[in-house]
Specification:
With 503 residues, this protein is mostly helical. It has 24 helices and 5 strands. A 5-stranded mixed β-sheet has the order 3-2-1-4-5, with helices on both faces. A hairpin with a 2-residue loop joins β1 and β2 (14-20). α22 (398-416) runs antiparallel to α23. It starts with 5 loop residues before the first strand and ends with a helix. Residues 453-484 have a biased composition (Basic residues). It comes from Candida verbasci. Keywords: Nucleus, Ribonucleoprotein, Ribosome biogenesis. Residues 298-416 form the Nop domain.
């Protein structure tokens, strides 16, 4: 493949147009001598010639052009540079332009149809050489100008990407759910330690109050069990959800407790640790509220359908809401069960029926024989909900409510056999809740019917094709059998004739 006639070099300070003086072919470019020539400025400067260098007017223009190039868009500034510096060509006499980014090719081709855009190995070698000798090739630039411009543009480009990232809200959800899961583990571990430590003083309390948060708060209220009297009933009842019977039981057990007395210093350490557990638990509650609010803003339909925590785990595991919306329903079904899936594929065993969606209440409600079926149906609805959340302009819970209703009706259908809601009716109901009216000409039922007819036709065509193939195979087998039988008969006939003549 021949090399490019011209090169477009994009850099932080501006655009450079180079003319290729010595052409190479693809095989020659891989030779050691040619590779070394690009590293030598004396040899490389004879291979290319700078035609034009168009600097950017400022950092804002540099950032704008960098964003356009990353998206494969040719800016007006770049268009004017190419039109001014590239020679006019016809369809018979085309010129080739080498670029570093493949996505720029179609955009340049749109407004310069007679220019072929290349991004092959030869073009990349030339551009690599220009990058190495940039300080010498671009005259008028002082030493360090390119590095400073690159650093400034890099910071501005990265800042803009973070600032205008579509997935920026997802990042907070991913961090929040990861912290929530970590806090659950830590609080359970610390609560066990508190119970064990305070159990030396008042062992009966752990059997009376099982809730970790209430237990830690009771420790702070009781301190030394010997100080408990009937006057403390009201304070204990306020911690135990106004359950005076349970509070009285705590007081009675404190009087006859088998626990040992501990020193004031030891008690202070236990109380300090209990205070940390209470603070962590309260922070966990605040974090859960924050996550709930965030999920209802970012993914309201997914939250309504499957719950905030499970929805957040799905988003976290997929990487972002956009990634989740791109996943097929079958992938969403087993998200979180990848280890079990690959183990099953390796051992040729049964593949898992569900992953993270197992924690949904719908899976728990289903009978053991229907868990796989409802998980497949629920994954399908989760996939729809995530797509609506990701691509809708205004957040709404209408579709989530209707999808949830559909899953509940599907559960009833598995148990009782009552007919569930049709998809067309579900869409109509959701659109009615959002206040959107369907056009009279376009009915959802018609779309669904057309789809069903198309699927039936495809199935019918497949069946006919299969039958034809089977018939053809049978006919070929029969023909082969007949041919073989005829050949056997023809071999036997002359032998018989010969025998008769002897007689």
């Amino acid at each position: 493949m021949p090399g490019p006639d011209y090169l477009l070099y994009e850099k932080a300070t501006g655009y450079g147009i180079f003319k290729v003086l010595i052409q190479q072919d693809e095989i020659a470019s891989r030779q050691k001598e040619v590779q070394e020539a690009s590293q030598d400025l004396g040899k490389f400067s004879k291979m290319i010639e700078l035609i034009s260098f168009a600097p950017f007017q400022g950092a804002a223009q540099a950032l704008e052009n960098a964003n356009d190039i990353s998206e494969g868009i040719v800016s007006d500034y770049l268009k004017s540079i190419l039109e001014l510096n590239l020679p006019k060509s016809s369809s018979k006499n085309k010129i080739t332009l080498g670029v570093s980014d493949k996505s720029l090719g179609p955009s340049i081709k749109e407004f310069l149809p007679n220019v072929d855009v290349l991004s092959n190995e030869i073009a990349q070698d030339f551009l690599r050489g220009i990058r190495v000798h940039g300080d010498k090739l671009f005259k008028g630039l002082q030493q360090g100008d390119i590095e400073r411009a690159q650093l400034g543009l890099g910071h501005a480009f990265s800042r803009a990407k973070v600032k205008f990232s579509v997935q920026k809200n997802d990042n907070h959800i991913i961090q929040a759910i990861a912290l929530l899961d970590q806090l659950d583990k830590d609080i359970n571990t610390f609560s066990m330690r508190v119970k064990e430590w305070y159990g030396w003083h008042f062992p009966e309390l752990a059997k009376i109050v099982s809730d970790n948060y209430k237990f830690a708060r009771l420790i702070l209220a009781i301190n030394d069990k010997s100080t408990l009297t009937d006057d403390s009933l009201h304070d204990l009842a306020s911690i135990l959800d106004e359950d005076s019977g349970l509070a009285q039981r705590v007081i009675d057990n404190a009087k006859i407790s088998m626990g040992q007395d501990i020193s004031e210093q030891d008690m202070n350490n236990v109380l300090n640790f209990a205070k940390r557990v209470v603070n962590l638990t309260e922070y966990r509650q605040q974090l859960y509220k924050y996550l709930t609010d965030k999920m209802n803003t970012v993914a309201p339909n997914l939250s309504t359908l499957i719950g905030e925590v499970v929805g957040a785990r799905l988003i976290s595991h997929a990487g972002s809401l956009t990634n989740l919306s791109k996943q097929a329903a079958s992938t969403v079904q087993i998200l979180g069960a990848e280890k079990a899936l690959f183990r099953a594929l390796k051992t040729k065993g049964n593949t898992p029926k569900y992953g993270l969606i197992y924690h949904s209440s719908f899976i728990g409600k289903a009978s053991s024989k229907n868990k796989g079926r409802i998980s497949r149906y629920l994954a399908n609805k989760c996939s729809i909900a995530s797509r609506i959340d990701n691509y809708s302009d205004e957040p709404t819970t209408a579709f989530g409510e209707v999808l949830k209703k559909q899953v509940e009706e599907r559960l009833k259908f598995y148990d009782t056999g009552s007919a569930p809601m049709k998809n067309s009716d579900a869409i109509k109901e959701a659109l009615a809740l959002t206040g959107i009216d369907l056009d009279e000409d376009v009915e959802v039922e018609e779309v669904v019917e057309k789809k069903e007819k198309k699927e039936k036709k495809e199935k019918k065509d497949k069946k006919e094709k299969k039958d034809k193939k089977e018939k053809k195979d049978k006919k070929e087998k029969k023909d082969k059998k007949d041919k073989k039988r005829k050949s056997d008969d023809s071999e036997d006939t002359p032998k018989k004739k010969k025998k008769k003549s002897k007689d």
